[in-house]
Specification:
about 675 residues, about 50% helix, globular
C-alpha cells in the first residue's frame, strides 16, 4: 500500500511512497491539518542522490513501530530540497544554529501554528548507535516536550526566530569599512586560503571560491599564497583525482579524503557545469594542461550520452549507488564505477596493464572496499596504450564501445534499473527532472569551454538547453523552476533567475553576433526585478513576492555553498547588462545590491566569494567594442571582467574601443595597444 507521495512528480518523494509513514507533501492542506489536530510537524528534507537519505528511507522510515508512533503523534511532511531550496535554506540554517552543523537528510520539528522549528537533526538510526539516539526515542521525547514544556518551548522558538530574522535582515556593520581594493584583496586572500590543499577531511570542488581565486591572480596582490599555483593545483586535483570518472567522463560530488582519491560517487549536474567553466578559464589563463582539456571533453561526452534529454535539457543527477545484480535487495555505493584488480588484469594486455598501473592507482588491495577507484599519478597527455586500456574498461561498464554508444538511456528508479537488460553493468538511477538553475550552470560551462577551445558541439548543446528553457519554462507569463517530462512547475527562485540570466549572457559572450541571448536576458531580468527585488533591504529575495506565504522569513541568498549565491551572480549580471545596454538603472541596482551585503563581506569574507566576484565586476568592468574578427580572437583569452560588443563604427585608424564603466579610453590603434588597455582596465580598482 502506498501513501500520498506515490502521486508526486519528484523521484525523491516517490522513493518514500511505500513507507508505512503517512507522508504529506508540503502544501496548505498539510499545514492546516497539523494546526487542526494540534500535531507538531515532522519535516524531512533530502534529495534523490543523497546516500544517507536513502539509508534512512530503508531503515527508520520503513520501521512499523516508528511509523505507528509518527502517524499518531506528528504530521509528517517530505520535501525535495531541489524543488524547494527556499524551505531547505531556512530550516538548514535553523539546524546549524541548534547543532553547529548541517547536512542531509535534514529532519526538523516545527510547531504547527507558526512553522517555527524547536528541534533538528540529520540521520537518525532505528536503534541507538554511532553516538546517536534511536529515532523512536527521539520522537517520544520530543512529543513529551511539546506537550508538557510549553513555556520553555515558546522561549526556545523565540530565540530561533529572532536569530533567523536577524540573519535575514543583515544589520549594517560600518566600523571596519575597507576601500574596495582592500576588500577585494581580503576576499581573494580568504578564498585562496579556502582552496589551498588540506591535510585532512573531505575534498569538495568549491568552485565559487576557485573562481574568485583565479580572477584575483591578475591583481598581483601581496599574499602568503601563490595564487596561480593554488588555482592550478585545484585544477589538477579535479582532472587527475578519483573525483573525475577517467573511464567515461563526468565529475563525482566530492571525495571522502584529502587526497582526492575516493569519491562520494553521485554525479550532480551543478558540479559538472561549474568545473567545466573553471577548467576552461584556467586553460585560458595560461595553464594549458592536457588533462584539463581531456576532462572537459570527457565530461561533455558523458553529458551528451547520459544526461541530455531528447528535448535538449539536462538531467539533474545520477545516484552514487547501483545494483550488482538484478536480484539484489539493496544497491551498493560505487558499484558502477569501481574495479577489482583481477578484473582489470584479465581484461587488459600485459603492456596495457603495466602502463595502467604506472599511471593510475590500481593495486591488489584497492583503495575502496577492496576495489579500485582510478586516480592518475601524473599530469600530461595519456598515451594511446592507456586510452585503449580505458576504452576496454568502458566496454565492460557499458557493454559497447564509447564510439558506438550515442545515448545511454536513464534508469528512472530502482525497479527500472534492476529490470532493464543492460549490456554491461547495471546503471545507477538518474534523476531526470530539469532544474533551471543547474541547467544554467552547465550552459555557462559549455559556453565558456566553447569559447576557449572553439568546439562547436559545446555551443550546440548549450544553445539547445537554453532554447528548451526559453520555450517551455513559462506558465501564464511567469518563469518556472522545474520541468518533469515536459510539464513545467514551481515558480522560479532567485538562483534560477540569476544563473539563467548569466547563462544567456555567457552564450552571448561566446557568440556576440547572436543578440537574441541578450534580448532574452533583459526580458527575464525585468521579471526578476519585478517579483524578487527587495525594495526595503536591497538585493533579491529567494522567492517571489506572491510565493512566500508559507515561509517564516524571506531570505536573500548571499552565501556560497556547492553552488554560487544568487545575489552574487545577480549583481555581476546587472553590471554586465549595464555595459551591454547603456541602461544605468542596472548599475544603480548593482550598487544597491553591493551596499546591502557589504557588512557580511567585511565580517565573513569566507561565506560569500560570489559577492566579491560581483564587486570585481562592479569596480573593473570593461566593455570592448570591435569588429567580429577582433572579438573572436579575444574570446579565448582570460578577461574575467570584460564584455564584448561587435561594431563596425570605429574611429578611423583604430581597431577597437575600450570603455571603463562610464568612460572610454582613446581608440586602440593596434592589437598590442588594445590588449594593453584591456589588461590595465581590468585591474583599476
Amino acid at each position: 500500500m502506498t501513501n500520498r507521495l506515490a502521486e508526486a512528480k519528484s523521484l525523491y518523494l516517490r522513493k518514500h511512497a511505500e513507507n508505512p509513514i503517512d507522508w504529506w507533501p508540503w502544501c496548505d492542506e498539510a499545514l492546516a491539518t497539523a494546526r487542526a489536530q494540534n500535531k507538531p510537524i515532522f519535516l524531512s528534507i533530502g534529495y534523490s542522490s543523497c546516500h544517507w537519505c536513502t539509508v534512512m528511507e530503508g531503515e527508520a522510515f520503513s520501521d512499523i513501530a516508528i511509523a505507528d508512533y509518527m502517524n499518531a503523534n506528528y504530521l509528517p511532511i517530505k520535501v525535495d530540497r531541489e524543488e524547494r531550496p527556499d524551505l531547505d535554506s531556512i530550516y538548514m540554517q535553523a539546524l546549524q544554529m541548534m547543532s553547529g552543523q548541517g547536512g542531509w537528510p535534514l529532519n526538523i520539528f516545527l510547531s504547527p501554528e507558526d512553522l517555527v522549528p524547536f528541534y533538528a537533526g540529520t540521520y537518525f538510526p532505528v536503534d541507538p548507535r554511532y553516538g546517536r539516539p534511536g529515532f523512536l526515542q527521539v520522537l517520544q521525547a520530543l512529543r513529551r516536550y511539546y506537550d508538557t514544556e510549553k513555556a520553555e518551548l515558546q522561549q526556545r522558538k523565540a530565540l530561533i526566530i529572532e536569530s533567523l530574522l536577524t540573519s535575514a535582515v543583515l544589520q549594517d556593520g560600518t566600523t571596519t569599512e575597507l576601500e574596495d581594493r582592500e576588500l577585494l584583496h581580503q576576499g581573494w586572500e580568504t578564498s585562496t586560503g579556502v582552496i589551498t590543499r588540506n591535510q585532512s577531511g573531505n575534498s569538495f570542488p568549491m568552485i565559487p571560491y576557485t573562481e574568485l581565486a583565479l580572477r584575483g591572480t591578475r591583481f598581483n596582490f601581496e599574499s602568503r599564497y601563490d595564487g596561480k599555483q593554488v588555482c592550478t593545483q585545484r585544477g589538477l586535483d579535479l582532472a587527475l583525482g578519483g573525483i573525475y570518472d577517467h573511464v567515461a567522463g563526468g565529475f563525482h560530488r566530492y571525495t571522502v579524503d584529502p587526497t582526492w582519491t575516493v569519491p562520494h560517487f553521485e554525479k550532480m549536474l551543478y558540479d559538472n557545469g561549474q568545473i567545466v567553466e573553471y577548467l576552461g578559464n584556467l586553460w585560458s589563463a595560461g595553464v594549458q594542461e592536457p588533462a584539463f582539456e581531456r576532462a572537459i571533453a570527457g565530461t561533455v561526452q558523458w553529458l551528451k550520452r547520459e544526461m541530455t534529454a531528447p528535448e535538449g535539457y539536462f538531467y539533474a543527477s545520477q545516484d552514487a549507488d547501483s545494483f550488482t545484480e538484478s536480484t539484489a535487495v539493496e544497491p551498493e555505493e560505487g558499484a558502477f564505477y569501481v574495479w577489482s584488480y583481477s578484473e582489470v588484469q584479465q581484461l587488459l594486455t600485459p603492456e596495457e596493464f603495466t602502463e595502467l598501473q604506472e599511471e593510475f592507482t590500481v593495486t591488489p588491495n584497492g583503495n575502496f572496499e577492496g576495489r579500485n577507484v582510478l586516480q592518475r599519478r601524473n599530469s600530461g597527455k595519456l598515451s594511446a596504450t592507456l586510452e585503449m586500456a580505458l576504452s576496454k574498461l568502458f566496454i565492460v561498464r557499458y557493454g559497447v564501445s564509447s564510439e558506438s554508444l550515442e545515448t545511454f538511456p536513464p534508469a528512472r528508479n530502482n525497479q527500472e534499473a534492476k529490470s532493464t537488460n543492460w549490456p554491461g553493468r547495471i546503471s545507477s538511477v538518474t534523476d531526470t527532472k530539469m532544474i533551471v538553475a543547474w541547467n544554467s550552470l552547465m550552459i555557462s560551462g559549455l559556453a565558456r569551454a566553447a569559447g576557449v577551445f572553439q568546439e562547436p558541439l559545446y555551443l550546440e548543446l548549450a544553445a539547445r538547453a537554453a532554447n528548451f528553457i526559453l520555450e517551455n519554462q513559462f506558465v501564464n507569463g511567469r518563469f518556472q523552476r522545474l520541468n518533469y517530462q515536459g510539464e513545467p512547475t514551481v515558480l522560479a527562485q532567485s538562483e534560477d533567475y540569476a544563473l539563467f540570466i548569466k547563462a544567456l549572457l555567457d552564450l552571448q559572450a561566446s557568440n556576440p553576433e547572436h543578440q537574441r541571448w541578450l534580448e532574452k536576458a533583459i526580458a527575464i531580468q525585468d521579471e526578476f526585478n519585478e517579483f524578487l527585488w527587495s525594495v526595503e533591504l536591497g538585493g533579491y529575495n529567494n522567492t517571489s513576492s506572491d510565493f512566500s506565504q508559507d515561509l517564516i522569513v524571506r531570505e536573500r541568498s548571499y552565501t556560497d555553498n556547492a553552488t554560487p549565491s544568487a545575489n552574487g551572480i545577480a549583481i555581476a549580471n546587472l553590471v554586465r547588462l549595464a555595459l551591454l545596454t547603456d541602461n544605468l538603472d542596472y548599475l544603480d541596482l548593482a550598487e544597491l545590491g553591493l551596499k546591502a551585503f557589504k557588512s557580511v563581506m567585511h565580517r565573513s569574507p569566507q561565506a560569500c566569494p560570489s559577492l566579491f566576484t560581483a564587486l570585481d565586476w562592479y569596480r573593473n568592468s570593461t566593455l570592448i567594442r570591435s569588429t567580429t574578427e577582433q572579438i573572436n580572437s579575444l574570446i579565448p583569452k582570460f578577461l574575467p571582467a570584460a564584455v564584448f560588443a561587435i561594431t563596425s563604427d570605429l574611429p578611423e585608424g583604430s581597431i577597437g574601443l575600450v570603455c571603463q564603466g562610464l568612460k572610454c579610453l582613446a581608440p586602440a590603434e593596434n592589437v598590442e595597444h588594445l590588449l594593453q588597455q584591456v589588461e590595465k582596465s581590468q585591474v583599476r580598482a
